[in-house]
Amino acid sequence: MPHSPSARALAALMLLAVIWGYNWVVMKIALVDIGPFQFGALRTLFGALVLFGLVLALRRPVRIVEMRAVALMGLLQTTGFTGLIILALVSGGAGKTAVLAYTMPFWVMLLAWPLLGDRLHGWQWPSAVATLVGLLCILDPLHLAGDLLSSVLATLAGVCWALAVIVAKRLQARAPDLDVLAIAAWQSLIGAVPLVVVALWWPAEPINWTPSLIGALLYNIVPGTVIAWLLWLYALRRLSAGTTSMVSLVTPVIGVLSAAWQLGERPDTGELAGMLLIGIGLLLLSAEAWRRGGVR
Questions:
Q1: Which H helix or E strand runs over 17?
Q2: Distance between CA 25 and CA 11 in Å, rounded?
Q3: Is residue 102 a contact partner of residue 154, using CB atoms and an 8 Å limit?
Q4: Can you spell out the DSSP letters for 195-233?
Q5: Cα–Cα distance, 97 to 296 (Å, whole number)
Q6: CA separation for the pair 126, 282 (Å, rounded)
Q7: CA 91, 97, 99 angle in degrees (round to 5)?
Q8: Residue 122: which of 252, 242, 247 has the closest Cα?
Q9: Model confidence over 44-90: pLDDT tens digits?
Q10: What radius of gyration, in Å, describes the C-alpha atoms of the chain?
Q11: Total domains present in the chain
Q12: Which residues contact 4 (CB under 8 A, 6 or more apart)?
């Protein structure tokens, strides 16, 4: 039915993909007027404060147990992932950075084997091969030039995100009743602290408070953080993990298309082949999760 809970949850997830996908262009534009660490610090700190306001407004519990695990998630996902993608965007394209950062499921799949004892099976094997070949096409180790550093930073961001997911999986196994929104608020606040410290220490030009920069910060804080988390929680409760992961693949696609449309980014042949292979690999991985978890 078009207005069933599952259909509304799918629409919420698609809207989330659009918000996060276009944000790669928003962040790239913002870095014209602000240093990377300054932007990362402002984005994460104010995002965390607004999330705490949302937790209080919804009367969710503020205090949580397992603070060590939450702090580690904050350092990996907020400090590591956010810091690395913003640094990658300084010299790299928004579309390519989005694709490389969204190799996260690939790294979760590989790291879950030694860390969680979850071996590869089914479509995960061809997924691993396609994603790895795609990464090699983009990084192009035989011709080390251009924005290699940006590509490596974006890939490392995906690894940081994957490690945060694994920590979250372990945390969920130990304490399944923890409030996800409260965890998001705490990990954002804890992860913002190192970015604030680095922003105060790292030499940078004075911030140029243009309308586009203010709009970019507001975009990252309101739809990019608050609305995004509400949409994510709404969809997660009504859709299977397989369906959620497959729809999430739309995010880097929107990032690539938005960067091509607004920023005029045109990937070369090797980069385009790599992006397609990574897309195929992540699609196979999502199909395996869909097959195993089912759809509801």
A1: helix 5-30
A2: 22
A3: no
A4: HHHHHHHS--PPP---HHHHHHHHHHHIIIIIIHHHHHH
A5: 32
A6: 10
A7: 160
A8: 242
A9: 999 999 999 999 998 988 988 889 999 999 999 999 999 999 999 99
A10: 19
A11: 1
A12: none
Phi and psi angles of residue 245, each rounded to the nearest 5 degrees, phi first: -70, -35
> Residue 87 to residues 2, 34, 97: CA-CA distances in angstroms?
42, 12, 10
Q: Which amino acid is at 239?
A: L
Question: What is the pTM (predicted TM-score) of this model?
Answer: 0.87
Domain span at 242: 5-293
210 CB-side CA count, 13 A: 10
Contact 38, 201 (CB under 8 A): no
pLDDT, tens only, 273-294? 888 988 888 888 777 776 765 4
Tokens of 86: 């913003």
Amino acid at 64: I
Report in angstroms the alpha-carbon separations of 295 from 176, 244, 290.
22, 9, 7
The CA distance from 292 to 286, in Å, is 10
